[in-house]
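Incident review: delayed structure delivery

Summary: a single-chain prediction request sat in the queue longer than the usual turnaround. Root cause was a stuck worker, restarted by the on-call engineer. No data loss occurred. The affected request and its eventual output are reproduced below so the record is complete for anyone auditing the incident later.

Affected input:
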Amino acid sequence: MGIVNFSAFTKYKELIRSLPLSFTDEMIKSEPFLLEKDDQKKLEMYYAPFDYVNESAKVMIVGITPGLHQMKRSFSTVIDTKDKSMTDEEILQEVKKRSSFEGPMRINLVRMLDELRLHEYLGLSSTMELFNKANDLVHTTSVIKYPVFYNGKNYSGTTPSMIKNETLKKYVVNGFAEEIKPLNRPLIIPLGVNVSKVLNFLTEHSDLDPSTTLTGFPHPSGGNGHRHRQFAENKEQMKEMIKNYF
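Output delivered after worker restart:
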């Protein structure tokens, strides 16, 4: 367990804590937290404290990028820990616990993982435990670690392409690919086709082992109207892959 080697948390921690607890969206989507801006592609990327990495994880769940909701949860967590005696690593771990795939997405995610019987291989009653008492078994992350907004809204991973746009690709190669190196071959669960495309790219251009990646898992967002069909079509092959992995 630890902090990614490219973390900028020490730079931003006090800046985050200087915000009021009732901060507005405009306060955090602002110049002090801006990491990248591409006016031509209508892209903006902001810092958020998602720098914790669980190097002992058995399972890694990978999304596209944190959305505004997760960004706000992460800032609130850092502010909430201001008067507590916690190390940076403990604060960042708490951020992951409170923010990762939080809300309806987590419910959809757990429902599908339980249907694949992943919890049985991990000795759990449900994969919901990965987000509380069995948190030590999972590493949650995104192929682009920091919140990205396209035309002011949460970036969906489609336009522009994460592996064709140089700004986004930089964070895939120098961020995500570096983040997973210390991990000991966890089962990688990419959420949706866009994340799978990034992992396929890394398989071709790095030493990522394709046998550790679960293929065909849909994005659990309620906005993904095709997730039920995608899950049904790939369910049996995913169950077999999980069985073979463990």
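Verification: The longest helix spans residues 227-245.
Action items: add queue-age alerting; document worker restart procedure.
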